[in-house]
Amino acid sequence: MPELPEVETVVRSVAAYITGQSIEAVTLSSHRVTRGDRDHTIQALVGSTISAVRRHGKQILIELDRGLLYIHLGMTGNLLWNASPGKYSRAVFTLKDGLLVYNDIRQFGRVEFYPETPPHLARVGPDALRIDFPSFFARLKKRQGAIKPLLLDQSILSGVGNIYADEALFAARIHPRTRAGRISQERALKLYRQLQATLKLAIQHRGSSISNHVDARGDPGQYQQMHAVYGRAGEPCLVCGSPIKRIVLGQRGTHYCPRCQRA
DNA sequence: TCAAATGTTTGATC
DNA sequence: GGATCAAACATTTG
């Protein structure tokens, strides 16, 4: 489910429910989602109090009075307030006033406890909404590969996934195969601005619900209705009418308009 | 039955 | 060492 706008939507909706509450009990049922010693993780969590819910890129950081709960939604993770646990519930937190339920069909997500900054954070680059243009441009400059896979590289920039990489490149009229290091400062600035504008607009629409993104209440986002290229292969470009193309780049489906985004 | 799916890590290759 | 690419992970859906 998750790219920056979806994760932000989940963080905002869940924060309103759980901030300030204490954790009274925890059930962890997936050794894939929760690595390591689960009993130890439960022991560390029970009795602590949630002080804040933050996001860095696609990572959710639930700050506790002692330590931190790290959640990554992977591809199919949901974080729901007061939902009934079901077949795909991989973690259930009993809080003072209700249940926080983590569901994840494919189990690509993570629910882990860390006493201090999780090691994952050291591996990821600046958040896509917080990076400034000079460092964005400097990071592009260094690379010679295609821009699309580079936008997906979380160590360069964190938060952008397959949908918003395609949408931002379309908005900036840049072909996904363009070599990153060869993009002029002017065009890079356009990409930077369009990327941030796309992410912010998507947050306003509470993210894209392509398969199973929902917020803490279980409500889907609406931004999928506004996609210009993602998932629109063969359909006419909203700007010029040419059929949207789908290729595979860096193992990911990549959608673009061959006329608006020339190589 | 096959392909594809919002992601990340790991290992191979150049 | 760095960059790049494919495979693997687990499950559903069209």
Write the layout of secondary structure elements.
Layout (H helix, E strand, L loop, with lengths): L3 H15 L4 E6 L9 H8 L4 E7 L2 E6 L3 E5 L4 E5 L7 E7 L2 E7 L5 E5 L4 H5 L9 H9 L5 H6 L9 H10 L13 H20 L40 E5 L2 E5 L7
Antiparallel strand pairs: 1-6, 2-3, 3-4, 4-8, 5-7, 6-7, 9-10
The structure holds a DNA duplex (14 and 14 nucleotides).
List keywords for this structure.
263 residues, 28% helix, four-stranded antiparallel beta sheet, elongated, alpha+beta, single chain, DNA-binding
Could you characterize what this model shows?
The protein has a four-stranded antiparallel sheet with strand order 1-6-7-5, with helices on one face. Strands 2-3-4-8 form a four-stranded antiparallel sheet, covered by helices on one side. It is an alpha+beta fold and 263 residues long. The protein has helices at 4-18, 38-45, 119-123, 133-141, 147-152, 162-171, 185-204; strands at residues 23-28, 50-56, 59-64, 68-72, 77-81, 89-95, 98-104, 110-114, 245-249, 252-256. A hairpin with a 2-residue loop joins strand 6 and strand 7. The structure holds a DNA duplex (14 and 14 nucleotides).
Structural class: alpha+beta
Strand content: 15-25%
Helix content bin = 25-40%
What is the approximate shape?
elongated
Mean pLDDT, nearest integer? 94
Task: Compose a concise summary of this entry.
By secondary structure, this protein is an alpha+beta fold.
